[in-house]
Amino acid sequence: MGNTRVGVTSGLLAYVFWGVLGIFWELLHAVPALDTLAYRIVWSLVTIFVVLLFQNSWRTVWQTIVTLTQNRKILWIMLSGLLITVNWYIYIYMVTHNQATEASLGYYMMPLMNVAIAVLFLHERLSPAKMIALLLVVIGVVLLTKQTGALPLSTLLMAASFCLYSLIKKQVPLPATISLALETLCVAPFAAIYLLLSPHILTQNGPTVTGLIIASGAVTIVPLALFAVATKNTQFMTLGFIQYLNPTMQLLVAVFVLHEPLSWHKIVVFVFIWAGIAVFVLESVYQYRRLSQPHDALRQSR
């Protein structure tokens, strides 16, 4: 019971943290999005270095690199580093360019896009309920495309990059800090080279912005650490419900804090997305209860 409480609390804190993170990146709107991304990568690596130094885990990092190289899985880690970097950049760009509402839409779409990826890459069968859920999401995307006159590529790419990132994480499971250290190590040299060539200077926007840039490493690591605790101590079904807290808070932040307009066109799109999520969640609850019944009967018989 104690571990479950810790897990749920950690999950709630992680998703709340991610939900309000748009405010943090908006405070850095004066910094070009690509520079913000590069700073985030570099300072994340510095933060991870301190954490691993405190944990005395650098030997484990090196052993993991050797093992992954021997197993020819190091390329998957490099790809995951690239995918999470793409996800970070798109999100930072959207939030700092008055597109936080569209960003929250992308995170709503992620669970259902995970289903699509499972069908395409893992060859899982699609239940009728999931087909309906995906159809509703597709209708929402089509409506958004018709209203804006263009396919919402940023929203779709942000969702797809994180879904593919999650897929790789399942194929190559590693502890959170070790995994993030390896992924960051893969992209940090490119970020450092970019910052050396960029005309932007760390301190040019004043001490407040400079402090926020330095804090971006901790801002990245803290929710990931909380999420790692949650995944170890919480049932998958529980996390499945909690995950919708993130885009819901993002939407609320976009409308009430960042003051982005929420037109009725967007509301219609969200209605279709929410309907798809409702079908997805209801079917997940039904499947979970059906699978848990034999276990409950077995306990009672004992």
What labels describe this entry?
83% helix; 0% strand; mainly alpha; globular; 302 residues
Describe what you observe in this structure:
This protein is mainly alpha-helical. The protein has 13 helices and no strands. It has helices at residues 2-19, 21-26, 33-55, 58-70, 74-95, 100-121, 128-148, 153-171, 176-197, 207-233, 236-242, 245-256, 264-301. The radius of gyration is 20 Å and the shape is globular.
The string of secondary-structure elements, in order, is HHHHHHHHHHHHH
Largest beta-sheet details:
none
Mean pLDDT: 86
Helix share, percent:
over 70%
Number of helices: 13
| Global morphology | globular
Count of individual beta strands:
0
Structural class: mainly alpha
Strand content: under 5%
Unreliable sequence segments:
none
* Cα-atom radius of gyration: 20 Å
End-to-end distance: 21 Å
Secondary structure layout:
Blueprint: H1 2-19, H2 21-26, H3 33-55, H4 58-70, H5 74-95, H6 100-121, H7 128-148, H8 153-171, H9 176-197, H10 207-233, H11 236-242, H12 245-256, H13 264-301
Helix pairs in contact: 1-10, 1-12, 3-5, 3-9, 3-10, 5-8, 5-9, 6-7, 6-8, 6-12, 6-13, 7-13
Summarize the structure.
Keywords: Cell membrane, Membrane, Transmembrane, Transmembrane helix, Transport. This protein has helices at residues 2-19, 21-26, 33-55, 58-70, 74-95, 100-121, 128-148, 153-171, 176-197, 207-233, 236-242, 245-256, 264-301.
